[in-house]
Amino acid sequence: MAAAPGPGRLLPRAAERRTAGTGRIPVRLDRRAAGARLDAGCQEAGCRIAGRREGKPQPGGVPRSFTLREKRLP
């Protein structure tokens, strides 16, 4: 039996539904830069890389890198 979808799949789906409800066509998600597994999952879900932000300052923490992913909604 396959495991239920985790937050990595549920949160983007919820963002897509919310964005589609506003009439906007693309949805953009910033995610911490990660590895091949996350990139493959995003590509499988129909997202493309729209940009990167290296070393973004974080309140009370160390700077982090982010990847901006975009998906065109039906």
Provide a concise account of the structure shown.
With about 70 residues, the protein is α+β, with helices and mostly antiparallel strands. The chain is built from two helices and three strands, in the order αβαββ.
What are the SSEs and their pairings?
Layout: H1 7-21, E1 26-32, H2 36-44, E2 48-58, E3 61-72
Antiparallel strand pairs: 1-3, 2-3
The low-pLDDT segments are none
Distance between the termini: 31 Å
Element string (H = helix, E = strand): HEHEE
What's the count of strands?
A: 3
**Helix content, binned percent:** 25-40%
Q: How big is the Rg?
A: 14 Å
Largest sheet: 3 strands, antiparallel
Global mean pLDDT: 81
Shape: globular
> Number of helical runs?
2
Structure classification: alpha+beta
Q: Please state roughly what percent of the residues sit in beta strands, choosing from under 5%, 5-15%, 15-25%, 25-35%, 35-45% or over 45%.
A: 35-45%
Strand order, largest beta sheet: 1-3-2
Key features?
single chain; 74 residues; alpha+beta; three-stranded antiparallel beta sheet
Description:
The protein has 2 helices and 3 strands, in the order H-E-H-E-E. With 74 residues, it is of the alpha+beta class. The longest helix is centred in the first third of the chain and has 15 residues, at 7-21. The N and C termini lie far apart (31 Å). The relative contact order is 0.24.
